[in-house]
Amino acid sequence: MEPKTRERLANLRRANRKMPRRRLDLPVEKVTFKDPELLSKFTTETGRILPRRITGVSAKLHRKITREIKRARAVNLLP
């Protein structure tokens, strides 16, 4: 069944687009708040955390990265 309008079709495609290639080069044990260089790869210049669909990490790893970024901010290792 097709969406009724072109706008709805565009929104459907936008919501169901494929994720970029999965990142398999990052072990879970390596992600720690003591490594701000690694954590800065997952934030923008302004300090916002990048979403999963852009970084390509798994949901479990993304939750850990988010937790570690917040810990690093709490101890002033990240801005």
Task: Give a description of the structure.
The protein has helices at residues 6-15, 36-40, 52-55, 59-74. It has four helices and no strands. The model has no long low-confidence stretch (mean pLDDT 89).
Silhouette: elongated
Number of DSSP helical runs:
4
Largest sheet: none
* Distance between the first and last residues' Cα: 48 Å
Number of strands: 0
Q: What oligomerization state is this entry in?
A: single chain
> What are the low-pLDDT stretches, counting only 5+ consecutive residues below 50?
none
Q: How big is the Rg? A: 16 Å
The helix/strand class is mainly alpha
Mean pLDDT: 89
Strand content: under 5%
Order of helices and strands: HHHH
Helical content stands at 40-55%
Structure summary:
By secondary structure, the protein is mainly α. It has helices spanning 6-15, 36-40, 52-55, 59-74.
Based on the model shown, name its key terms.
79 residues; mainly alpha; elongated
Question: Mind sketching the topology for me?
Answer:
Layout: H1 6-15, H2 36-40, H3 52-55, H4 59-74
